[in-house]
Amino acid sequence: MSLTHVTVGLGWDPAPPTGPFGNTRKDIDLNVTALAFAGYDFVDAAFHEQLTSRDGALRHLGDSVTGDGDGDNEVITVDLTRVAAAIDTIVFLVTCYTGQTFDQVVNGFCRVSDSVSGMELVRVDLSRATSHTGFVLAKLRRAEASWEFVMIGDPILADHPTVALPQLTVYLGAV
């Protein structure tokens, strides 16, 4: 299957009320990030603090800080036809900006879909990342003239993409 456009979705439900009267809650703020690499060098990203990569190929469609609403709360679109020639790997990452572990997140999930066919390539229940604050979902790897999808599915300790960056080198290069 030749991929040209990919969508990454992230969803979760708001934190349940806490406190003696059930009237307070600590919001859970998950974030999805697409990080572009040339070999082992970080080049660019799309995430809640930078919505579009410099080449325009990676686009974050907006930040949810609570998980309110149904379906995907955050979405990144990837136009692989526009990715800069030097980029050979795009890594998809989920982090919890507010520091909760994924076992504290209600109905957390992330997924990757082929935007052209509508086929879901992978869907992951984030509770499997248990006591972690970060999750390396998958990567796209340039192979000759096309892109291939590679599932990763590894939990890490990272509440922000900058904290995760040093942990991602193991996923770069060959499968």
Key terms for this structure?
mainly beta, 5-stranded antiparallel sheet, Lipoxygenase-1, 175 residues
Fold and architecture overview:
The chain has 175 residues and is mainly β. It has a single domain, classed as Lipoxygenase-1, CATH 2.60.60.30. Helices cover 2% and strands 44% of the residues. The chain has one helix at 161-164, and strands at 5-13, 30-38, 41-46, 58-60, 74-79, 89-96, 106-114, 120-125, 134-143, 146-156. The strands form two sheets. Strands 4-5-1-7-8 form a five-stranded antiparallel beta sheet, with no helix packed on it. Strand 2 and strand 3 (41-46) form a beta hairpin. The longest helix is centred in the last third of the chain and has 4 residues, at 161-164. The chain starts with a strand and ends in an 11-residue tail after the last helix. The mean pLDDT is 90. This is Tellurium resistance protein TerZ. It comes from Nocardia caishijiensis. Pfam families: TerD (PF02342).
SSE string, helices as H and strands as E: EEEEEEEEEEH
The count of strands amounts to: 10
CATH top level assignment: Mainly Beta
Describe the strand arrangement of the main beta sheet, using strand numbers: 4-5-1-7-8
